[in-house]
């Protein structure tokens, strides 16, 4: 049944496809899906099922969904898991980040602050259609203001690496961090909290000529500053790459250092390397050749950083408003959502400019992309 849905999806997508402007000759992006609600992050299972979060910025009823056609979806893993219930935390409350592993388990980060439950990482096995495991992320691993929202799956070292941008309720990005969870023991650590590499820089997010602001503590407009957001890892599981959304620097750290519990916070910070310049960006992905792909939220574009460590625009499209989650698929494409966060009413004097349909694009990367990263 799922395979049938997938084939229908792929065939019908060609009807909706439209080319986006490419900065590189033959590189094009297609509109793969047009949906009624904002899409946050995207994951692909090994059998090419497309699983996605509805962006939590808009408080969706269906937190996580499975694409059933280029214009339709169904709750994932089911309706019950998308429905908050008293007396249990066995539901998805507030989700942005998710990834699938090589075994078909979709790992979903539940930030938990919508109905005030403990943040957790939920694994759902798409092959058995059963819960695989839950890893809880309580205080002090998460803090007031935590917003853990992107993930890397490191099967080689049996770890998860989660970016916490620290802009949830009560957060201002100053305690952004990386959370490391051991797959076997479930033990979690919070590292690089408040580090120069995870906290936002004091630069505005400017879209269509306007800075995105929120009311400050004094009631006056204050620019949004978002901490550690995009995170990915190379194919050899040697380097983790990460960056605050608000900032001009992309960083990396050796996986061995990130997992070395003997290092003090100061020693670990000293192992972080500034890798390259970048614009304000959300999502981050990588291919087998080591090229990094960044969703440039201000310019409706996808950027790339290659071996020369220099950023350049890869492709753009005027309807790619706030490109967000980006991931590879078994079909050889990379997929990216356009969540339209910057068009929301709170950024436009109460007048919403976001509108349906919400788009998922796909494009050919320079080399095969790494699905779980």
Automatic annotation (TrEMBL):
Top-level taxon: Bacteria
Keywords, comma-separated and alphabetical: Secreted, Signal
Keyword check for Signal: yes
Localization: Secreted
Cross-referenced InterPro entries: 6-blade_b-propeller_TolB-like, MRJP/yellow-related
Signal sequence interval, chain numbering: 1-22
Signal among keywords: yes
The protein's name in its UniProt record: Periplasmic protein
Organism (species): Bradyrhizobium iriomotense
């Amino acid at each position: 049944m799922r395979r049938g849905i997938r084939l229908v999806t792929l065939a019908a997508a060609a009807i909706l496809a439209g080319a986006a402007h490419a900065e590189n000759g033959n590189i094009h992006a297609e509109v793969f899906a047009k949906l009624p609600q904002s899409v946050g992050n995207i994951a692909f299972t090994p059998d090419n099922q497309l699983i996605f979060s509805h962006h939590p910025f808009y408080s969706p009823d269906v937190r996580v969904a499975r694409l059933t056609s280029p214009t339709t979806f169904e709750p994932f893993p089911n309706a019950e898991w998308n429905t908050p219930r008293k007396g249990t935390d066995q539901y998805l409350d507030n989700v942005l980040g998710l990834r699938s592993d090589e075994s078909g388990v979709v790992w979903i980060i539940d930030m938990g602050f919508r109905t005030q439950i403990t943040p957790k990482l939920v694994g759902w096995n798409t092959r058995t259609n059963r819960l695989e495991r839950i890893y809880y992320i309580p205080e002090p691993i998460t803090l007031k203001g935590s917003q853990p929202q992107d993930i890397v799956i490191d099967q080689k070292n049996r770890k998860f690496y989660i970016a916490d941008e620290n802009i949830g309720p009560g957060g201002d990005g100053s305690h952004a961090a990386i959370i490391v969870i051991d797959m076997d023991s479930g033990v979690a650590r919070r590292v690089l909290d408040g580090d120069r590499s995870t906290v936002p820089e004091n630069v505005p997010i400017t879209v269509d000529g306007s800075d995105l602001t929120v009311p400050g503590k004094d009631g006056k407009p204050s620019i949004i500053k978002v901490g550690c957001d995009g995170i990915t890892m190379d194919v050899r599981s040697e380097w983790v790459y990460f960056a605050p959304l608000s900032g001009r620097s992309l960083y990396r750290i050796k996986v061995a250092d990130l997992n070395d519990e003997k290092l003090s916070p100061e020693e670990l910070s000293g192992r972080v390397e500034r890798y390259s310049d970048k614009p304000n960006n959300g999502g981050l992905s990588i291919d087998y050749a080591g090229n990094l792909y960044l969703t440039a939220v201000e310019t409706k574009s996808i950027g790339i950083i290659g071996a020369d460590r220099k950023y350049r625009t890869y492709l753009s499209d005027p309807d790619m408003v706030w490109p967000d989650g980006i991931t590879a698929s078994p079909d050889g494409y990379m997929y990216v959502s356009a969540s339209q966060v910057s068009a929301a009413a709170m950024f436009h004097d109460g007048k919403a400019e976001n509108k349906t349909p919400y788009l998922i694009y796909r494009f050919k990367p320079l080399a095969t992309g790494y699905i779980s990263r």
